[in-house]
Amino acid sequence: MPPVRLSGGDLARALPAGGLTYVQGCSAESALWLDELRQTPDAWGEMTFTGIFVPGLNRSTYLVNAQSRARAFFLTPELRAAGDRVEFLPFCYGDIRRHLGAQSISAALFRVAPPDEDGWCSFGPVVDFLAELWPRTPIRIAQIDPLLPTTRGHRGIPFQDLTAFFEKSEGALPMEDAGANGDSVAASVANKVAAWIPDGATVQTGLGRIPGAIFRALSKHRDLRIHSGLVGEGALALREAGALASGVSITAGVAIGSPALYAAIGEPDFNFQPVSHTHSAEVIAGLERFVAVNSALEVDLFGQAYAELTPTGLMSGPGGASDFARGARLGGGLSIVALASTARGATRIVAPQRARGPVSLGRFEVDLVVSEHGAADLRGRSHAARARALIAIADPSHREALARSWAEVATTL
After folding, report:
1. CB 372 within 8 A of CB 343
2. Whole-number Å distance between alpha carbons of 259 and 233
3. Of 115, 135, 167, which closes a domain?
4. How many domains, the chain?
5. Whether residue 162 sits in one domain with residue 182
């Protein structure tokens, strides 16, 4: 049976009430779904919405009636403000995949590019979980968007396997690159990270000031590859600098950035794959000279990294950081945590038991911690040697206090 063509106000014809509905988020989230859901709020009953919603990019809660709920793996400010109608699951990406795979998902709402000559509709810049979820999701409702780029790698979904579809042009959601406004501290951290990355390496990092600065610091490297959960403007910067290897050099599950980035991601050097590939420890372990570079809010003197709790509350689970760190360690690569040594005058290298929130990366998942004051190589070191190395890269004004705190801790070990 061919998919049903829908027009404005028709979503209730294809999406039944209740159940668990997966909504494609990140840069492929669509305003169409919210418009449709809000037109007939009583039609959805006790529906739960889930997906990957990125702070600063995805602003909807999908709480379209008094009974609806949301299940999230990252807490946007809007979701946090919604209180107990939002279930927050602080999982790494591997566990998100296992969780979603175990759920009975009744429907999926997502955007695709128009079908190609073989009838396949690309998921564009957001392949991540949807690539594996759609075959076991009975109701598949797509927005066919001519402005969404067709990406290479995973083919997407055959048009004939859609349940229903809308046609509307929106294009991928743009997001300003925080790394474009890098400061001197971020540049200093990045230069010190770049010194540990050899030519021919495969690099993973995220979005933000320090990741953006790292890509700029790598512009004179050669034969690099990127293997990451998501890519942003930094991938374009390395590409334009001639730093990337020939052939397929950028593998990711999601792209978030500018229209220029979205215009490029359909090129042959980009390869979009699901989480089962991008975050697989076995796949990562097989990558030549793999270097995972992740950020943290704080690092304690044991070498444990904390990246989830901000002054305004929990923001996320560990995301993909632990998956990439695990793969790096398994394959003999390098797991780096990069951060500025202070924030608003407070030290971000802290005494044990002074860090905020749950541990995001354990001490066996971190090889190096890098700040603007240097690199602490934690490999093969005792607790005391780790602490000394980390104190040495803290802000000078905090080192004496950290040393005193460590001396107190050491008496209990």
Report:
1. no
2. 10
3. 167
4. 2
5. no
Is 38 within 8 Å of 30 (Cβ atoms)? no
One domain for residues 346 and 216: yes
pTM over 0.85: yes
- Per-residue pLDDT of 316-325, as tens digits, reads 888 999 999 9
> Is 70 exceeded by the pLDDT of residue 180?
no
Whether residue 209 contacts residue 178, with contact meaning beta carbons closer than 8 Å, is answered with: yes
pLDDT in tens, 282-298: 999 999 899 999 999 99
Q: What is the 3-state secondary structure (H, E, C) of the chain?
A: CCCEECCCCCHHHHCCCCCEEEECCHHHCCHHHHHHHHHCHHHCCCCEEEECCCCCCCCCCCCCCCCCEEEECECCHHHHHCHHHEEECCCEHHHHHHHHHHCCCCEEEEEECCCCCCCEECCCCECCCHHHHHHHCCEEEEEECCCCCCCCECCCEEHHHCCEEEECCCCCCECCCHHHHCCHHHHHHHHHHHCCCCCCCEEECCCCHHHHHHHHHCCCCCCEEEECCEECHHHHHHHHCCCECCCCCEEECEECECHHHHHHCCCCCEEECCHHHHCCHHHHHCCCCEEEEEECCEEECCCCEECCEECCEECECCECHHHHHHHHHHCCCEEEEECCCEECCEECEECCCCCCCCCCECCCCCCEEEECCEEEECCCCCHHHHHHHHHHCCCHHHHHHHHHHHHHHHCCC
